[in-house]
């Protein structure tokens, strides 16, 4: 039977405490030695040899105590502790044996001299050994960290090459196939379908091919967003939103759109940021059951961030859907697909945020905050300083 106390004694996690305790014990021995020598009136306590031994022992004991604290707070895993202590014990034994051999071959004044010499050898040997053990442990851990970083870099390079390959397949093969399917389905609907049912079947094929193209395009954008380091630049948000609103009306037909977009508002992002607002605007119409979809876009430039609110008059988002709205979904039945996951990924890429600030039977409002570019910050500051106090 193994007692719980035994498990605690041999636990590597407790080794730093034992090292600190060993330093405390050496301190007690040193102080007790001095007190006893003074109490017995031993003259050796005032000799130069004893004082040199004390002066060299005190830093070594302090080093052992510091070594215990360092082991406990360093990045070394507990599995490295026994080896560091092994170096300390080895240094203690070797240094003590060497000095005992010197004591045996050299004449000593008294047993007091022998005891002090042996104590000095124990302290110096343990301190130097622990120092070597800590330095070795840190060197080994740094080497392993560098090797892991190298392996991780190689793995990331392989993944990036694989993602580039997938991106090429999606762009040149799958997307082209979806376009061909859409084209032939449109021909069937216009020229070969003779009944309403046949036309309905053709429309289903067209809708599914368009949905496939949208998903493929989103996946391609996701792959691009993981390609290399993020290189942010100044993006004209005012013009971008104006273009996306124009595309929305062109794609979905009659849409009641209200905009409040100040001119010359810029953010720190890249060309993929258009996908953020393209997806949010498309969702505002695609999932809208109103007779005439209504969408509003409002931009509020601030000194540090630019806030964009996109509101619709749709049916709102259920609580169960809201919990996982921006997460990846495995089921085909998700009402928002990969689009909102892509939105969250891209906004995070720009160190911004996206949230649902309001939802209900009267509609939903999304808010996107992106870091303002230097131009927008200057404009906002100038506007704030030129506006009259309220």
From TrEMBL:
What is this enzyme's catalytic activity, as reactions? Answer: ATP + protein L-histidine = ADP + protein N-phospho-L-histidine
- Superkingdom of this entry's organism? Archaea
Annotated Gene3D superfamilies:
1.10.287.130, Histidine kinase-like ATPase, C-terminal domain
Protein's UniProt name: histidine kinase
Specify the Histidine kinase domain's residue ranges. Answer: 169-374
Taxonomic lineage from the root: Archaea, Methanobacteriati, Methanobacteriota, Stenosarchaea group, Halobacteria
Top-level enzyme category: transferase
Pfam families referenced in this protein's UniProt entry, alphabetically: HATPase_c
| Keyword Oxidoreductase assigned | no
TM helices/strands, residue ranges: 20-42, 48-72, 84-105, 117-135
Question: Any idea which UniProt keywords this protein has?
Answer: ATP-binding, Kinase, Membrane, Nucleotide-binding, Phosphoprotein, Transferase, Transmembrane, Transmembrane helix, Two-component regulatory system
Q: What is its EC number?
A: 2.7.13.3
Keyword Iron found: no
GO molecular function term, any single one:
kinase activity
């Amino acid at each position: 039977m193994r007692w719980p106390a035994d498990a605690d004694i041999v636990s590597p996690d407790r080794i730093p405490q034992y090292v600190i305790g060993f330093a405390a014990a050496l301190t007690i021995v040193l102080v007790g030695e001095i007190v006893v020598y003074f109490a017995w009136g031993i003259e050796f306590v005032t000799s130069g040899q004893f004082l040199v031994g004390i002066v060299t022992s005190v830093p070594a004991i302090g080093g052992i105590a510091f070594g215990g604290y360092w082991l406990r707070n360093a990045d070394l895993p507990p599995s490295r502790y026994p080896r560091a202590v092994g170096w300390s014990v080895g240094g203690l034994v070797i240094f003590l044996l060497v000095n005992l051999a010197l004591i045996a071959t050299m004449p000593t004044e008294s047993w007091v001299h022998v005891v002090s010499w042996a104590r000095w050898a124990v302290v110096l040997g343990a301190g130097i050994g622990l120092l070597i053990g800590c330095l070795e442990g840190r060197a080994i851990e740094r080497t392993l960290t560098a090797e892991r970083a190298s392996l991780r870099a190689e793995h990331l390079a392989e993944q990036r090459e694989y993602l580039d390959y997938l991106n090429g397949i999606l762009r040149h093969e799958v997307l082209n196939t979806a376009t061909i399917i859409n084209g032939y389905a449109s021909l069937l609907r216009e020229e070969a379908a003779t009944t309403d049912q046949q036309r309905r079947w053709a429309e289903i094929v067209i809708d599914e091919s368009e949905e496939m193209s949208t998903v493929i395009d989103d996946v391609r954008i996701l792959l691009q967003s993981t390609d290399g380091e993020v290189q942010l630049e100044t993006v004209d948000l005012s013009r971008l939103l104006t273009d996306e609103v124009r595309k929305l009306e062109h794609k979905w037909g009659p849409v009641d759109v209200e905009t409040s977009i100040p001119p010359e508002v810029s953010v720190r992002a890249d060309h993929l940021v258009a996908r953020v607002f393209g997806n949010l605007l498309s969702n505002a119409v695609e999932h809208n059951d109103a007779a005439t979809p209504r969408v509003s876009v409002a931009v509020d430039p601030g000194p540090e961030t630019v806030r964009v609110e996109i509101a619709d008059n749709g049916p709102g988002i259920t609580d169960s859907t809201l919990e996982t709205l921006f997460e990846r979904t495995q089921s085909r039945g998700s009402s928002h697909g990969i689009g909102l996951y892509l939105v969250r990924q891209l906004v995070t890429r720009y160190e911004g945020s996206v949230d649902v600030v309001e939802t209900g039977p009267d509609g939903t409002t999304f808010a996107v905050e992106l870091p303002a570019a230097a131009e927008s910050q200057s404009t906002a500051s100038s506007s704030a300083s030129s506006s009259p106090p309220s």
